[in-house]
Amino acid sequence: MNDTKKIASPGLFPGSEGKNLEGKSFRLPGDFxxxxxxxxIAFQREQQHMVNTWLPTADLLENLHQELSxxxxxxxxxxxxxxxxxxxxxxRSGIKDPKSxxxxxxxxxxxxxxxxxxxxxxxxxxxxxxxxxxxxxxxRSEGPCNAEKAKNLSDFVKSFFKP
Length: 163
Hints:
Layout: E1 5-6, E2 16-20, E3 25-28, E4 36-42, H1 48-64, E5 68-77, H2 81-94, H3 98-103, E6 105-109, H4 111-118, E7 127-131, E8 137-142, H5 147-160
Parallel strand pairs: 4-5, 5-6
Antiparallel strand pairs: 1-8, 2-3, 2-6, 4-7, 7-8
């Protein structure tokens, strides 16, 4: 089953605030660095293996297209500062690679509203979006990456940046 979707009428990535694992603050979508940004949204710690399936394609596309950036967005319910510190410290200690730390922005927010804004009906899967800095969603998928999804994403990005 192909669960990759081109968006006929793009939605908007909801305004969100978070910090990456290096402590840098972000106001999204405006602080996304790329003209086009691949965002990998996970709702549960156990979903990291699915996120990891997208990273080779994300790295390749970012290297091929200077205008594209990618981010991992662990998405967690609002918590008190001590709980946030505990979770962030745990993630930071588990991720040694500085590039991965810079690309991982933890969002603590009202997950229901966030999911509704993006048309996400379940937290049982990861969700992958291509968005611009204004938050327009141009492409989406869900679940682990496979050859078909990687090709679909690559073709879309190539056509987007075609001169």
